[in-house]
Predict the structure of Polysaccharide biosynthesis protein.
Amino acid sequence: MTRTVGSAVTRGGLLSLTRLLTGIVRVKVVALALGAAGVGEYAILLQLYLTGVAAVSMSLAVPIINLGRPRLVANQINEAGSVAGTSLVVVGANALLLALLAAAFGDTLLAQLGVGGAAPILVWPIVAAIVISACSGAFWEGISYLCDRFDIYVRVGMIGAVADMVLVAGAAAAFGLQGAVIALPIGTAVMFGAYAISIGRDPTARELLRNLSAKVSLLPHLLSYSAMMFLTVALTNAGSTFLRSRVLVEAGATANGYLQAVTSLSSYLLAFVMTGFWGHLHARAAAEGDTAVARHELAKSLELGLLISFTGCGAAAVLAPFLIPLFYSHEFLGATDQLIFYIPGEFCFQLLSMFTAYQLTVSLKRNYLAFTLGYITLLVVAGALLIPMTGGTGYVAAHVGASVVMLGAAGLVSWRRGQISGRFLSTIGILVVALSAVCLGLLHVRQFGNSPVNLLPALVPFAISGYLVLKRL
């Protein structure tokens, strides 16, 4: 493992920064064009798209990497090509099934989600976006990691982010909700083409593509991964879609728009933490397994990820009154307290995501399943109980509770396996308590109508942790 975690995190940070900056423009324009109610409806359609991508791709990039990387390192190019080729055939079959289901039930599904009246002609653009994105996410992304070309993943991600900003924001401004959704497949097509061009220039990837083939004998191995990934990713997205639709039905489109602002801003923070983590560990840990070498790299990645997450989450909580109108509009300032409340849970979720990701890279499937399904089960159960009583705040509370509980469980399991030290586990606990105390203090002070500017001194601890991050990079 010659690539340093710092370089991977820096490269991943550039991708995340690009997505962040383009996201500011895209989300700002969409929010101004559609308003809070329109954003609430768009959020449901976007969640449906994400769920569809999970179902069609079945996250086959993971078995392409986990099964193909050891073969490629051993110079078994034909075997690695068979893994990738068989995965591509599975994605094609899933795409065909999706088209048939959309033709039969698409309109009914949109109506059940509460957006049928607002989007009567959007079934097929969503289907097209799902299919193209699934091919990029399952096949091209898998090939880039399989060849250990994280730089290609980063470059194409930047291109995709810019294309998505220009197309979705422009279409929303010109044509409203329908324009924003119709632009989705065009943006995904740009990203698909960028992957094809970039990967085609790599000699190892070209040789791999020339040796693509499909083998029925590989299906059980692929499907053992894809079934696991499909179960976890699709259930996560389906659970989120269900809860978001409950917020829409129980509390209205405006409440769901506020919640979209909260979850969207948090997703940018998660990307800053996880992109470099995956880029540094996945291809190499897949070939190594849960060895001392992989655990050493895990420790360095976790320590840096912990500091980045603490800095980003803390800054987001303090700057929430400024970030929300920056990314959305002043109409969304009602979501400020929700975002501050959400942040401690998001910090725990980001740490949980790192623990969970490592289990996947070294093929510890049971741990991965337990961590992921435990979170989504707690989220759905708590959300179903709380949303009818408190609307979007119920979703936030469910996320916080599920994240705290599962981080504790994942931390203990990882410690008992020797993947992390007791000292690191204690550090996590201290920082969770510290961040929670800051957020509770912010919520308390805001009740007295203090200017957001007066709360800026609370940034000091996060400025210190940010300085430590820069030193490690």
Notes: The CA atoms of residues 205 and 239 lie 36 Å apart.
